[in-house]
Amino acid sequence: MIKFFLMVNKQGQTRLSRYYEHVEINKRTILEAEVIKNCLSRSKDQCSFIEYKDFKLVYRQYAALFVVVGIDQTENEMAVYELIHNFVEVLDKYFSRVSELDVSFSVSEIHL
Amino acid sequence: MPAPIRLRELIRTIRTARTQAEEREMIQKECAAIRSSFREEDNTYRCRNVAKLLYMHMLGYPAHFGQLECLKLIASQKFTDKRIGYLGAMLLLDERQDVHLLMTNCIKNDLNHSTQYVQGLALCTLGCMGSSEMCRDLAGEVEKLLKTSNSYLRKKAALCAVHVIRKVPELMEMFLPATKNLLNEKNHGVLHTSVVLLTEMCERSPDMLAHFRKVRQLSSSQLVPQLVRILKNLIMSGYSPEHDVSGISDPFLQVRILRLLRILGRNDDDSSEAMNDILAQVATNTETSKNVGNAILYETVLTIMDIKSESGLRVLAINILGRFLLNNDKNIRYVALTSLLKTVQTDHNAVQRHRSTIVDCLKDLDVSIKRRAMELSFALVNGNNVRGMMKELLYFLDSCEPEFKADCASGIFLAAEKYAPSKRWHIDTIMRVLTTAGSYVRDDAVPNLIQLITNSVEMHAYTVQRLYKAILGDYSQQPLVQVASWCIGEYGDLLVSGQCEEEEPIQVTEDEVLDILESVLISNMSASVTRGYALTAIMKLSTRFTCTVNRIKKVVSIYGSSIDVELQQRAVEYNALFKKYDHMRPALLERMPVMEKVTTNGPTEIVQTNGETEPAVLETKPPPSGLQPASQANDLLDLLGGNDPVIPTAPSSKPASAGGELLDLLGDLNLTGSPVSAPAPQITQPPFLLDGLTSQPLFNDVAAGIPSITAYNKNGLKIDFTFERSNTNPSVTVITIQASNSTELDMTDFVFQAAVPKTFQLQLLSPSSSVIPAFNSGTITQVIKVLNPQKQQLRMRIKLTYNHKGSAMQDLAEVNNFPPQSWQ
Hints:
The complex is a heterodimer. Chain A is of the alpha+beta class. Chain A has 4 helices and 5 strands; from the N terminus they run ββαβββααα. The relative contact order of chain A is 0.18. Chain B is an alpha+beta fold. In chain B, the strands form 3 sheets. In chain B, strands 3-4-5-8-7 form a 5-stranded antiparallel sheet, covered by helices on one side. A 3-stranded antiparallel sheet of chain B has the order 6-9-10, with no helix packed on it. A two-stranded antiparallel ribbon of chain B has the order 1-2. The A-B interface holds A 13-14, 16-17, 20, 22, 25-26, 28-29, 43, 45-51, 76-79, 81-83, 86, 104-105, 107-108, 111-112 and B 7-8, 11, 15, 51, 54-55, 57-60, 62, 83-84, 87, 91, 94, 96, 124, 128, 245, 251-252, 255, 259, 291-292, 294-295, 298-299, 302, 330-335, 365-369, 371. Chain A: InterPro entries: AP_complex_ssu, AP_mu_sigma_su, Longin-like_dom_sf.
């Protein structure tokens, strides 16, 4: 089950956040900061799946933006990895050559 | 008031903020503006304000005052309002707020709206944050929508149904008839969501699972063949631009179907058989050059492993995993290692074939892969490959990150224990671990190691030599120093005499050994526990070494005033040993007997029960309501005084029960003159010791038949005394009391207390229980020890308290009818 879906840039600013489980609002910022820290410290030839607390993070980097999805143990990691890519491709088609600015300005559309 | 700024303006302004404080300021200002605008009930700009609020919420600022506004937006007729309203509801509200119930009516109306998009919005929101009450109310509507022909709505309704089932499992049957037709759709969206719905149903309820597996005679609507058919179409069909992802058509759907097949096929032969072909087909036809193909293969492998597939298929699956391992892409290797870990239990041999690749993965740079490879390597160690694997693992231990070292060390210990080809190799391995990762070794490893060393009798000299050499250079790693000091203490004489067959003998003098131990004591790096070990070791050496006893005495007396309480206590006791009980010292400090390892009781607490710490152990036992404080060290020594010294008992596993404590006490009393190995057979059954108490005589040489007496018999409670005395220790009488209850109700919270005249000393041990069952169906047993050095007539006053028939009873009595043999 997907727990959350985040798009965070390298400076740690959240561009998109969707939580599918209830998380307190103050914990969310902490979570996002920690997650981005984990992802930033990985080098390019390291695996895209990180084990964090009791779930896994699947992340993918597109230019300066990180898409991170938190999943639990029953989910197929590779399928989620593909899902991330598919999602970015959809955004690309919708905005015709999407960039980070598009994502930050069209919050409501992307959220739905 | 001027029109509130648009969302884009807000975002632009926030982006210009250069510091966190500036950003916060801007947001506060905007929040205030929004709040005043809400108060004015301004309809036109409400949606804009809420959108801004949502953005701020995403950045992490509190936005709960917008919840009611969301509701108002949902109720409005404009689509843009509704859209923002529903989005806000999904993000800001959840079941914890009471406000969400107000939405139910709105959603109900919107579910029946003419525009499908509005219906879709409502379904989304319900599926996202519907509480169980809302779900119950609206489930009927959702079910209706599940049957419409509009595929856009159908797929959303299916997902909403998933959420409803998760919240209210009882409603599952309601959706069952609708699912029959779901798989006949062409639209992939609907197919996908219906597969999700079916998966959820099957996972939640085994009845549903059975229902779906059942073969139905007439219709061709059995689930498994349907799924197989769909999957086949997906693979076989040519390029379809709608669903293509890098050359494979709709991989997401394929993966979902595979997962559902896995659930259906688990533990079920018929379904598994139906799936075999298609699984083989998928496994062979899928392209592996892209990640997508690999994702599908991964899911296929998982499915094959879980269902009852034929062996050919399983071999195929493991080969696929082996191919994954050789792939350059880290993700794939990680995934392969994870699934191999899952399958290693069942298909051990097949996985062994890939052992070398797995061991190579230990050297990978990536943390997740290393961890997986380490776990898998431990699972693969067996009798044949243990030497080679250990070498690799030890090398890994040297070079890995600190977070791994503890796990790796424990794993190596376990594996070495199970598969060690020879004792020497085992000890070598342990030494290697201690020297490389000494500070990361877990605490329970130290007693286990000590126990292991004592067990390998012929290796003592070799072990102690190697340990001595190890700490000569470096005594900062605590577990290593602890084990080493214990060994030196025990086998110091072997070390000094320099005989060792396996290695060249080294010349060590007693002074050098004492030097090392003293430096451990003094060093700042030593933990308090380690210091305790070192001090005890020095003490033990006083009997093993011949010429340096004075030095030892000096060291011990220095620590008598140490700040550390533990050290001080030990030093004071050892001093006492030197001064008052010097005659007992050799026997107290004799070599420890071989310890039995009780593997079932978890980590065995091996208390350092050399003779001299026995008194310390006894002191800590809670006195079970004896009128005299139970056993002070000196009392007990007096009790034993004059006869053979206490021979140290082997420590048994100590479940914190009275049985264990009793064992120690009786164990040492029991061994009057008997050889050291006698306690071993008794230790294995501590729970039965109390039976042993009543049925067997406690002493080997019991004085012939002292008659037992009934000490008390009133109100249905009868207390019998049975006596035992030893010929070798005539001033001690051991009385076993047995309390029985002949009434028809149990007596609970039974407490027995006793007092004796001043010339006697009394020790009361823990009773077997505090409930006396009725009708004489059971008894409480308790042991009393009376010391009667002046051989006066035994008299005793007893006090009984218990609960009977709901009321608390108490009684005092005097026992005078002790038989003369019990005290003369």
